[in-house]
Amino acid sequence: MSDLNRFRYTMESCNHCGQCKWILPHRMSGWDFAEVCPIHSHFGFDAYSGQGLINIAREVMEGRLERTDELAAMVQTCAGCGACDVNCKSVRDMEVLETIFELRRDLAETGHLPDACRRMAENVSAGRDPFGVPQAERFSWLPEDFREDPEADVALFAGCSAARDPAPVLAAMKILKAGGVPFRLMTEDERCCGAALWRSGQQSAAEKLVRHNADAFHRAGIRTVVTVCGECFGAFRSIYPRFGETEFRSVHISQIAADLILQGRLSFRRDLPPLTVTWHDPCMLGRLSEEYVPWEGEIRSYGLHVPEKHWNRGEFGVYREPRDVLAAIPGVETREMTRRMEEAWCCGYWSGLADPECAAATAGERVREARAAGAEVVVTSCPFCKTALSGGTDPLPVVDLAVLIAGRLA
Ligand code: SF4
Ligand code: SF4
Q: How far apart are CA 258 and CA 179, in angstroms?
């Protein structure tokens, strides 16, 4: 059950400094591209920000604000990107994003949830993925001649999005094969990673998926789970440990590719046209992919946490490897966007469950930033980012990193 009181310290510690809305001053290159919170940028009210949402959580907890469907819809406009959280932690030690997720959980458990979020859990209960694809069709894209290595303790996790666009997973399979990495696919037992349910506040429904996948890895003797989707990667790192599921390690395909390139086990064609790209850091591959470390204890005066608490500040996400891989591909030149790494601007996809207009504005802003950086193509590693960034009125081409790598292998 949810317990907003666990985050009372965060709610009471906010000093309304506003850092959760802006990138750090020393990283600013002007007012343009200086905001970090997509919903604050779109709606222009403090309520729509990390600061506002934790204030709302406090009002709900203390009984001054009624739980309603309208409130739940407003809270779900937040993309859950965590930019507010890492920026707040540059000035204070508190858990802004955890508080927002606990508020969503509180609202969901009291029956207040937008229909689009509720439908995801209903789909899962009915044997489909959260987006409606039946389990029986999860691997329908798999080539008939695919042969896995039955002895491998490495599983390539396809993710739900492969059913809609299998190209990134097929590309990852090609990279693993080219690098001589034995792997398996969990064609019988793989289910949604659970991130979509978890981040919408439906923790119990997410837990069933977490337990199912972790149990399947255990029974199959899987020690390493390779992901292509940034969302799945972030789920394994930041959600599974909440349920004690830490027996396997998760690795993103960019990390494997970077290793293989260092070892000289991948080589690239040199006869393809040059390409100027920019790397869009998916939130769940970047700032939200640090391993969750549980903490229980006492918070004393001046915020002293006893025993000492581990704080995830977004610094140790997967930022270097995708950039190293892009730098190693002949003919590919990377231009950096102003907001990058732990301060990357979110694609906005998850805001779309509650407010498609806000999601579209967020994605449009990112495309504008990519264009300002001089990129012809946005490269990323998350199907949700790809969908969001490709969907606007004036999009740039968006390419999945694994697809780009596999397409340029010699
Ligand atoms: S950065 Fe943190 S302390 Fe400052 S206003 Fe935002 S939530 Fe409050
Ligand atoms: S998680 Fe992202 S969208 Fe939500 S309040 Fe924080 S910065 Fe804004």
A: 11
